[in-house]
Amino acid sequence: MPVFFFSLRFLFFSAIIPFLASIVLYQLDTFDPAPFPPNALVYSTASIPPLINDQLLTGAEFIGVGLLNSPEDIAYHRDSGLIYTGCVDGWVKRVKVTESVNDSVVEDWVNTGGRPLGLAFGLHGEVIVADAYKGLLNISDDGKKTELLTDEAEGLKFKLTDAVVVRDNGVLYFTDASFKFNLHHFAFDLWEGKPYGRLMSFDPRTRTTRVLLRDRYFANGVSMSPDQTHLVFCETPLRRCSKYYINEERVEVFIQDLPGYPDNIRYDGDRHYWIAMPSGVTTWWKLSFRYPFIRKLQGIAAKYGFNTMILEDAGVLQVDLDGKPIALYHDPKHSHVTSGVKIGKYLYCGSLMDSHIVRLDLLKYPAQKRL
Ligand SMILES: *[C@@H]1O[C@H](CO)[C@@H](O)[C@H](O)[C@H]1NC(C)=O
Ligand SMILES: *[C@@H]1O[C@H](CO)[C@@H](O)[C@H](O)[C@H]1NC(C)=O
């Protein structure tokens, strides 16, 4: 028996052949990842806030268990007190939350037939949806009419419409994370390491779509400053959020070296933004972003059905209006947190994986100074 296992023939078939085959596969594969800009590979503790809760799930409550299928973004409608969220089955759902989460009511509101991600409220009660597959949608307040506003700019179709925000004057600002890869293949966008994302505006009066910024790395969440002068938007693989000054058409870094990969960013009406990070920075992510050949291997593995994208230690970072970190709520046991919205004393978290919204009482479970 042992003789067989260590025979040359065994070695040949079990190791050398697969090894040679994978070299050929690697060489033949056309997937061609690029190096990331060097500043994306800097890891510092500059963006770690003084206050931390590293057990986000401890004490957290689950809302709409089993009724919300990957509720990605969360938008709070103040007048009605309803939470809107977009699910992977195409439903925009409305949730009436109460003190006791078990009494919450989930309503199937409108199905876009696509994958609703970012949500925002228009000036006339309509709900604007950044639908990953469809583009930018306008759903009338009674839910009876869904209209496509835009799905291309400068001759390039959106592949992954991601987030949207509405300015006081009615102009919509939104992101397309990638014009090359759709949501189903978004991992390839991260692995390829090339900037296919755009920040854009849509003016409902002229019905024109304008590209404000191109060549962005997976342009993701976008939020409006309370004084309406600038946007803050996230670029996931760069672990960075930037400001875009609307009148000056100028870009400036808002926060970088984030402790994770940012997704949605939400303003809370109380001088803070909340940046959700579906994954923290792990050794594997670091290696993968540093070495394009690792990302190439990941891309090839994915084509053969092996998922090497591991998300862990998700969280939400609270920052002030200048991008100064205030508090981090995260959990090594949690992943795929895509949005964080503070409503009253609660933090509500959306997810790309859970079948519920996670709610944390910030007074009972605050972030605290580290010892
Ligand atoms: C809510 O429902 C869950 C699951 O059914 C149960 O374990 C929990 O005790 C309930 N909580 C309250 C406050 O009723
Ligand atoms: C959305 O559609 C409604 C009519 O259903 C219209 O009143 C509103 O102006 C539209 N909003 C945008 C941003 O186009």
From TrEMBL:
SUPFAM superfamilies xref list: Calcium-dependent phosphotriesterase (SSF63829)
One GO term (biological process): response to jasmonic acid
One of the record's GO cellular component terms: vacuole
Keyword terms: Glycoprotein, Membrane, Phosphoprotein, Signal, Transmembrane, Transmembrane helix, Vacuole
Domain of life of the native organism: Eukaryota
Residue ranges annotated for the Strictosidine synthase conserved region domain, each copy included: 162-249
Subcellular location: Vacuole
Matching Pfam families: SSL_N, Str_synth
Entries under InterPro entries matching the protein: 6-blade_b-propeller_TolB-like, Strictosidine_synth_cons-reg
Main location, first listed in the record: other
Transmembrane segments: 6-26
Keyword Transmembrane helix: yes
Family: Belongs to the strictosidine synthase family.
Protein name: Strictosidine synthase conserved region domain-containing protein
